[in-house]
Amino acid sequence: PLHDGAVIINRDRVVAAGCFLPLSINPDLPGDLGTRHRAAVGVTEESDAIAIVVSEETGTISLVTGGEITRNLDGAGLRQRLSQLLGPPLKAFGRRRAGTPAPLGDPAK
What we know:
Layout: E1 6-10, E2 13-19, H1 35-46, E3 50-54, E4 61-65, E5 68-73, H2 75-86
Antiparallel strand pairs: 1-2, 3-4, 4-5
């Protein structure tokens, strides 16, 4: 089942789901962090990944990069931090109705 484990996203695509990540063994992490948060810290200690964690118990959102965790973010705070780390989001291509010509320069034509 996909409700357990991590979802791995590369650029704008889900490339894997239900993944198990390496747990951090950092003794300085707060004692109240569970496995989900320790896995997020662990994967960012060992890679250039950015991890977003939603607590199963409280629903609070945390962002982890470089082994450092920022806790208790709201949606606006998460968007702001992600924009700082990744740059502004790209404009999504809208769907065209059948028979509508593609604009010049549209790679979908």
